[in-house]
Amino acid sequence: MDNTDELNWLEEFRKGNQKAIAYFFDRHHKSLFYFASNILQDSAQAEEIVSDCFLKLWERHQDFETAQNIKAFLFISCRNNCLKYLRDMKRRSAAQEQYFQQLETNSDEILYEIIDVEIIDILAKEIEELPDKCRQIFKMIYFQGKKTDEIATELSLSVQTVRNQKTRALELLKAQLLKKNISATMILSLIFFLDQ
Known about the structure:
Helix content is 81%, strand content 0%.
């Protein structure tokens, strides 16, 4: 992202230009939604909380000095609203309870969540850029949990072709992530995770 471009959007945002809120919405909505969904395990409530965060951001549009301030405000507001919702509803699973306690006691945890969310967001975009057959097979394996032979039967392909497409998808994703300066360690972690 060009720093000059982002500074221009920030200036327009501070002036109250509605196109600027749309710019920051497009830039952060998906990551915030994933972040909130992770905490709440409820996509409808996550969407409501994220929308509320953008409304609060807009109400305070003159208060932000940098684009990083906007991002931090959105993630902190989102985290706080999610925790308030969980407190109010008292419907926390054991995993949510543990996560809730970690977030309340260690505010640095949010930084790690933001990094994870951004990596997943980049990965999701790169998956959509894969060639059609690679993308289809990749999603069937990793998102739908289908086995190689199931996919081969369903798509009228050989098992070896499905394996080749899976390998190709992983190689293409690895190459694209390296181009985006995602660390080799992070890529290996993702590939290892996906290859389980």
